[in-house]
Design a protein that fits this description.
Blueprint lengths: L4 E5 L7 E5 L28 H4 L17 H27 L5 E8 L2 E8 L5 H8 L1 H6 L2 E4 L2 E3 L9 E6 L4 H23 L2 E2 L11 E6 L7 H16 L4 E6 L1 H7 L4 H12 L4 E6 L2 E4 L13 E11 L8 E10 L2 H16 L2 H7 L3 E2 L9 E2 L1 H21 L2 E2 L5 E3 H6 L3 H4 L5 E4 L2 E5 L4 H9 L10 E10 L15 E11 L4 H19 L2 E7 L9 H18 L4 E3 L9 E7 L5 E10 L12 E2 L6 E2 L2 E10 H11 L13 E5 L5 H13 L4 E4 L5 H10 L4 E5 L1 H6 L1 E6 L8 E4 H15 L1
Parallel strand pairs: 3-7, 17-21, 23-24, 30-31, 30-32
Antiparallel strand pairs: 1-2, 3-4, 5-6, 5-7, 8-9, 9-14, 10-11, 11-12, 13-14, 15-16, 18-20, 19-20, 21-22, 22-29, 23-25, 25-26, 26-29, 27-28, 32-33, 33-34
Helix pairs in contact: 5-6, 10-17, 15-16
Length: 746
């Protein structure tokens, strides 16, 4: 029998709306955040739309102004939220309880292991399945995916499905762990200070989490952080479960009527037709799409790190907030190791080393755009020369394109719809121009400039292009997040039949480069995002091609769902330096869309008849931005640059001023061979000269005195104890040794 939709409205005082189906009930479980819509024996067209829910002209309650509250007032607000949550939760769970517990087949994947399990619809949860595997596995299981959709471990399954379970060892498990920890932090902040919570994400691609909140005039200090930490640990010990409900816009506005920041987010979700999800953890009721760990007891180690200033939405004209950073782990030993590693990292922070080594600086009159001093410029140029040498070996051709284009170009390439708000725009002679934030539209124009034959493909176009992106002031982070940067960008135009070889070549290029610098890396395949161009079949083909390339590459990799570029899937490389900091650097993006765009009309002749065919485009970068890569290397080497890359390779120190002329002569001879060498002919003591040279991280100190001047030699002192280049030697022998050292690196 076909069931009909019944709309039940709870009295207007609670503004609760629920969709029930037939006499046994049921409710809409689909969520715009990615969960597939599921109705109990009900077709999609029976679902009440948002417009239906608003037909009674229910107006959202006004958002209260942000004010300081007493403890009692804050407790009353928390109590009200909990009652509303529990009321809606009970209404939604009641119909489910009467549904038949039908058998379902669950195909479990954990790692590379596949196992088929039996379960009961609406009863069996991923946590139940994990417990069937082993108690140990269940104790580490943090979050699940059901048919590719993120899923809470304790949430009952609804149908036959493929189930994946993630632990802290997986990116998805780790991100969920830290995101859930941010809720524990928010629980403590709201309870202790009565602040207005804003957003609390995990710091993706890094370690830990934070929560932004509005505190009025209160400024947080170390004593506050100790209190917050103690309250968070209490919440952990209480083993609070994470429970969620999906709510209407009216319900959400009523629950969060005291918090204008949450109200703003709710209105945006409603305008974008996205589901509104609310989670409860202990006394915290928070707006969040989830998913979360089963309960707070999984967080065995918790630490508040620091508090800093922030702006709402990163806009300096908006409310001033305070951001509390935290870190958490499933065990105390991991936290201790992290704290030790952070202490080490502070000593070698690239901001500190950049200043002490006189590499670069930034001024308030050009925020996010760095001045490179002579020492820093030498590193910059050496990296560029390294890449130019590789380009020559690998068949790349360099081009130079304009820094500024009419916005029409970015409209044609579809970038304007995705990047315009992050571009620097200019009005020139009644036309709108944009300073380029990427090189690909310009490289398409290079390809389009003249006809091409299939014999020319693959065509590898490279450019050290100067790019500008309008990052928010609050998002700028020294060299790792800037507004002006140079990218080792290249685009490969090829035939589809050439993709396998070209992708292999780029993957090998990236691995070769990172091996040169001693950098380890993780690999992710980022798939189709919510907002994408082109057909699904083309996307599926592109993802399959990259999957095959990664499997052939032979290194472990993970899928990063929904994080592809708007024009195609991509392979991202997360680089880890010696301080275990992780940064996204290299990328390979497969693009069937841009060459096929009618406004560009890219094509090549494929046969004697001149038949035109569309090329496929590979976007790739190896270093990523030079600025970020230099920052990574500075910390990776802890300021001790290898000789070939060093901005301070050698310094000649004369024993006395009597040997000044010979010291300068040695400097000139070494310079002629292309090395950077300074000279210290001051009247300071030799011990002081050597000490200062060591602090400045010169690779070699060349001491010259009477003996060296008479024999045309130098006395070599190496910075690194393990370096075998030591002792007295002739200038010619020294130059041969230096040449061998450079060639040993690349």
């Amino acid at each position: 029998m076909r069931l009909k939709t019944l709309k039940v409205f709870i009295p207007s005082s609670s503004s609760v709306c629920l969709v029930l189906i037939g006499t046994i009930g049921g409710y809409f479980l689909g969520r715009a955040r990615g969960r597939k819509a599921a109705l109990v024996d009900q077709q999609q067209d029976d679902v009440a739309s948002v417009a239906d829910l608003l037909e009674n002209n229910v107006q959202p309650p006004p958002a209260a102004a942000v004010v300081s509250l007493s403890k009692d007032e804050q407790k009353a607000i928390i109590s009200r939220k909990i009652k509303l949550f529990e009321s809606i939760q009970a209404e939604q769970e009641e119909p489910i309880q009467s549904l038949p517990a039908e058998s379902i087949k669950i195909t479990l994947w954990y790692g590379q292991v596949k196992e088929v399990k039996e379960g009961k619809k609406w009863i069996t949860s991923p946590l139940d399945i994990a417990e069937e595997v082993s108690e140990s596995f269940a104790s580490k299981a943090l979050v699940a995916e059901v048919n590719g959709t993120p899923w809470d471990m304790s949430k009952p399954l609804e149908c036959d499905c493929e189930l994946k379970i993630f632990t802290f060892e997986d990116n998805k498990g780790r991100d969920t762990f830290w995101h859930s920890s941010s809720h524990i932090l928010g629980h403590a902040l709201e309870a202790e200070f009565g602040c207005k919570l804003c957003i609390g994400p995990c710091t993706t691609k890094q370690e830990g989490f934070y929560y932004d909140a509005y505190y009025g005039g209160l400024g947080l200090n170390d004593e506050h952080l100790k209190k917050i930490e103690a309250l968070a640990k209490n919440a952990v010990e209480a083993k609070h479960c994470f429970k969620d409900i999906e709510v209407s816009v009216e319900q959400a506005l009523e629950i969060f009527s005291d918090n204008k920041f949450k109200v703003e987010i709710i209105n945006e979700l409603h305008a974008d037709n996205k589901a509104i999800i609310v989670y409860r953890c202990g006394d915290l009721v928070d707006l969040c799409p989830g998913p979360h760990i089963p309960n707070t007891s999984f967080v065995k180690a918790f630490r508040c790190l620091k508090a800093s200033s922030a702006y709402w939405r990163g806009n300096k004209h908006s409310e001033s907030l305070q951001r509390v950073y935290g870190i958490s782990y499933p065990d105390e030993n991991s936290l201790k190791a992290y704290i030790k590693q952070q202490e080490e990292a502070k000593k070698y922070d690239h901001r500190v080393l950049a200043k002490s080594q006189e590499l670069m600086f930034c001024l308030p009159n050009s925020p996010g755009s760095w001045f490179f001093a002579p020492n820093g410029t030498r590193i910059y140029k050496k990296l560029m020369q390294f890449m130019e040498k590789e380009y020559l070996k690998r068949g790349y051709q360099e081009v130079i394109t304009p820094n500024m284009f009419k916005m029409d170009l970015f409209e044609r390439s579809k970038h304007a719809g995705h990047y315009k708000e992050n571009m620097f725009l200019l009005d020139i002679e009644e036309d709108e121009y944009g300073v380029k934030p990427m090189n690909c539209p310009g490289h398409c124009e290079v390809f389009r400039h003249r006809p091409h034959s299939y014999r020319e493909l693959p065509l590898q176009i490279a450019e050290f292009g100067v790019l500008h992106r309008h990052e928010a002031s609050g998002a700028l982070d020294c060299l790792t997040r800037v507004r002006r940067f140079v990218q080792d960008d290249a685009h490969i135009f090829c035939r589809e039949s050439q993709l396998k070889d070209e992708l292999k070549g780029v993957l090998d290029f990236i691995k070769y480069t990172y091996d040169i610098f001693g950098l380890s890396f993780d690999v992710e395949l980022s798939t189709r995002p919510e907002s994408y161009h082109g057909g699904r079949a083309t996307w599926d083909k592109a993802e399959a091609i990259l999957t095959e390339a990664l499997n052939d590459f032979g290194m472990p990799w993970q899928i990063n769902e929904g994080d592809g570029a708007f024009y195609g899937p991509k392979i991202d490389f997360g680089v880890c330096n010696a301080l275990k900091k992780k940064f996204q650097c290299a990328t390979i993006q497969l693009d069937f869309q841009l060459p096929d765009c009618a406004q560009f009309d890219l094509h090549y002749t494929s046969d004697k008849q001149g038949k035109g065919e569309k090329p496929v485009m590979i976007h790739r970068a190896v270093f990523g931005s030079f600025e970020r890569f230099i920052g990574i290397l500075l910390e990776h080497y802890k300021g001790k640059w290898p000789f070939w890359l060093s901005p301070r390779q050698l310094i000649v120190c004369s024993v006395t001023q009597e040997f000044e002329a010979y010291a300068v002569q040695v400097q000139e001879r070494i310079r002629r061979d292309g090395y950077h060498v300074d000279v210290d002919i001051s009247d300071r003591s030799m011990s002081k000269k050597i000490r200062e040279a060591q602090v400045a991280q010169y690779n070699y100190v060349l001491v010259v005195g009477d003996k060296e001047a008479k024999s045309d030699q130098v006395s070599v002192r190496a910075r690194d104890k393990q370096d075998e280049l030591m002792g007295v030697m002739s200038i010619d022998d020294l130059l041969r040794e230096l040449k061998n050292k450079v060639e040993a690196f690349h």
